């Protein structure tokens, strides 16, 4: 089996022992050589098997690319970056079953090993090539035997050891087969091997992590807190398969860490539970733990708690990762975020610092401007002037106070890292942005919704029938509502065309890009919910409407300040275009919202005057539909079908490795 055999029987070397772990009560999986050897050395330091006196305290051993630790004393493994109720048992393998190389249970293994050493220590072993051609065990009698609780072990020679089951059935089977002249060994015995099939070496080591990906969950985590951990594990395993197939020549790898931000939050305690009627309780509980998160997020009372919960967890994980991998930052390690569902909206708001209070301030300013325009009595005017002067004075004092604070303590950044790529999966972000007044512009830059200084690349991935997912590109350039999203390559496509070389294609080739009449789009403009930007006629219309209705419904129930603002804007608008608040909703960088009465920007009347403008980078990427799946069934399952998709894993890694590759090439050029 590729393992050099020792000529004389002696105690097993640390490299011959192999440690195993077992997850979800499945079969035992071997640790890689690097991990196994280090666990074995810790085990021996602890006093090994049957050590005397007090066992020495041993540091936990970091395993599986640093995601888990092994406590040798308790023979358990546990994750480093997240909490898990079930501990993962680990086991020391010395004797193995032929063929499968699964380890024998530790107690039996120890007994057999002890017996083997007592009987054969110091004896010569046969040369391995002789062994291959040596006579089968058929005619041989056992030279030594050991009785175990339900089995017994026979040694036919130093190297030929068999395990027999002592269950009644196999006794009968044995006597029958022996009478018929079959050998005892080959009929019902299991061949055992001492020492693992391959030696453990420190060279059998995981590659360095050059890129970490935080995986952020969406709604519904209250229902199943461990779900994001399982989902991330699925994504990580899928990505490992893709790495092995397509990126095995690279000496680095991408690590996926789950961000579980929901379970630590108290929010309203159990108030909502106490007001929930008992009939169809199961369904109500499901809604409370999923749709309620959208309501919490649109509530001014709890929104900050959700944002802080996610922000603190992201920073905690990053700090912990860097403390355990000090070379990560030194070598310019990168961070990307993959968010699902509502998680996309919260992540976006953390990165951009968007806050509904800013919208509220716009509203107050608007009302002041309206007051100035109407007739009022002398007394009213005098009081208003006084109020205005007082407000000015208040602002000056606040600014001075802020100035003093700023000079003493520099405000830490919201996130402790720069985000390289922000991947949204099944994301309703576009609806939230539309409800905040973001409208298409006339430049094809991602900066219109997410500045490149904050995040290098925004990518929006969705399944064509996911009812919660919306497109982002038509919020940047309106005519992209008629250009189909980029199709994500199937995992097994041979020589796929690189995404940056794929040309945009129209959804409805019969319809000209400029053919939407002004009147139609203008009449639709005042209400963000009827904006033509989000029309997706080519998908199962009713499916998309279910999703739209549920999100908009939840958003309108928990409207909070945003809702109040929009209803006010809606009532007081004098031109259909007054909804155009420009980029203010996304960035709020020294720009005033478009006030009533100002002429709208030329592109805002139809959005189709400049179909020649193209996006700098495509943002919307669509999974290819399966050939057999039913549209309506996939609408139910598609919102959660992203985690185990090989197509998505390949897509994510393609973008992350491409950047690393480009930078390496660039630095190589610089050195030349």
From TrEMBL:
Spell out the GO cellular component terms annotated for this protein, sorted alphabetically and separated by semicolons: cytoplasm
In what ranges is there compositional bias, type Basic and acidic residues?
581-593
Query: Which intervals carry biased composition (Polar residues)?
Result: 507-520, 570-580
Could you name the domain of life of the organism this protein comes from? Eukaryota
**One example GO MF annotation:** metal ion binding
- Where is the sequence biased in composition, kind Low complexity? 521-532
Domain DDHD: start-end pairs: 415-658
Q: Which PROSITE patterns match?
A: DDHD
InterPro entries in alphabetical order = DDHD_dom, PA-PLA1
PANTHER family in the cross-refs = PA-PL1 PHOSPHOLIPASE FAMILY, PHOSPHOLIPASE DDHD1
Q: What is this protein called?
A: DDHD1 Phospholipase
UniProt organism field = Oxyruncus cristatus
Gene that this sequence comes from: Ddhd1
């Amino acid at each position: 089996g590729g393992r050099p055999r020792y000529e004389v029987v002696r105690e097993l070397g640390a490299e011959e022992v192999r440690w195993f772990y077992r997850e979800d009560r499945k079969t035992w999986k071997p640790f890689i050589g690097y991990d196994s050897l280090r666990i074995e050395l810790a085990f021996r330091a602890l006093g090994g098997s049957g050590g005397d006196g007090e066992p020495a305290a041993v540091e936990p051993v970091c395993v599986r690319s640093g995601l888990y630790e092994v406590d040798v004393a308790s023979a358990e493994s546990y994750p480093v970056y997240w909490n898990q109720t079930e501990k993962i048992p680990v086991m020391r393998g010395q004797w193995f079953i032929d063929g499968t190389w699964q380890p024998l249970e530790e107690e039996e293994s120890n007994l057999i090993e002890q017996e083997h050493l007592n009987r054969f220590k110091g004896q010569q072993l046969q040369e391995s090539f002789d062994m291959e051609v040596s006579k089968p065990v058929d005619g041989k009698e056992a030279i030594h035997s050991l009785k175990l609780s339900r089995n017994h072990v026979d040694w036919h020679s130093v190297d030929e050891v068999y395990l027999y089951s002592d269950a009644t059935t196999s006794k009968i089977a044995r006597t029958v087969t022996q009478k018929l002249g079959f050998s005892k060994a080959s009929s019902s015995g299991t061949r055992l091997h001492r020492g693992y099939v391959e030696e453990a070496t420190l060279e059998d080591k995981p590659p360095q992590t050059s890129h970490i990906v935080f995986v952020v969950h969406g709604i519904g985590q209250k229902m199943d807190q461990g779900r994001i951990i399982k989902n991330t594990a699925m994504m990580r395993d899928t990505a490992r398969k893709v790495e092995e197939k397509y990126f095995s020549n690279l000496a680095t790898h991408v690590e996926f860490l789950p961000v579980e931000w929901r379970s630590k939050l108290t929010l309203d305690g159990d108030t909502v539970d106490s007001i929930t009627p008992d009939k169809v309780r199961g369904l109500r509980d499901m809604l409370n733990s999923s749709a309620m998160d959208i309501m919490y997020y649109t509530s001014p009372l709890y929104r900050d708690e959700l944002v802080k919960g996610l922000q603190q967890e992201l920073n905690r994980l990053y700090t912990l990762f860097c403390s355990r991998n000090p070379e990560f930052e030194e070598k310019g390690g990168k961070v990307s975020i993959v968010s699902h569902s509502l998680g996309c909206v919260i992540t976006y708001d953390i990165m951009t610092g968007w806050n509904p209070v800013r919208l509220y301030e716009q509203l107050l300013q608007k009302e002041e401007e309206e007051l100035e325009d109407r007739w009022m009595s002398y007394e009213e005017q005098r009081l208003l002037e006084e109020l205005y002067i007082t407000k000015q004075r208040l602002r000056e004092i606040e600014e001075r106070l802020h100035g003093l604070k700023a000079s003493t303590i520099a405000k830490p950044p919201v996130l402790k890292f720069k985000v390289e790529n922000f991947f949204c999966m099944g994301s309703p972000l576009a609806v939230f942005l539309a409800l905040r007044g973001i409208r298409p512009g006339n430049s094809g830059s991602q900066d219109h919704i997410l500045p490149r200084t904050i995040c290098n690349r925004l990518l929006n991935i969705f399944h064509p029938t996911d009812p919660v997912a919306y497109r982002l590109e038509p919020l940047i350039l309106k005519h992209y509502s008629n250009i189909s999203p980029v199709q994500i390559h199937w995992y097994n496509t041979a020589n796929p065309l690189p995404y940056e070389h794929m040309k945009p294609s129209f959804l409805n080739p019969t319809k000209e890009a400029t053919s939407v009449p002004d009147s139609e789009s203008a009449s639709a403009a005042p209400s963000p919910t009827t904006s033509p930007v989000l029309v997706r006629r080519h998908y199962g219309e009713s499916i998309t409407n279910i999703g739209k209705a549920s999100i908009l419904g939840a958003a309108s129930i928990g409207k909070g300040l945003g809702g109040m603002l929009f209803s006010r804007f809606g009532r007081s608008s004098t031109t259909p275009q007054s909804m155009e608040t420009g980029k203010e909703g996304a960035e709020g960088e020294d720009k005033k919202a478009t006030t009533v009465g100002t002429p709208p920007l030329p592109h805002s009347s139809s959005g189709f005057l400049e179909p020649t403008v193209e996006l700098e980078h495509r943002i919307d990427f669509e999974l290819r539909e399966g050939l057999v799946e039913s549209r309506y069934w996939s609408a139910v399952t598609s919102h959660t079908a992203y985690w185990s998709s090989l197509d998505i894993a390949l897509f994510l890694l393609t973008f992350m490795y491409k950047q690393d590759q480009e930078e390496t090439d660039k630095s190589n050029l610089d050195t030349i």
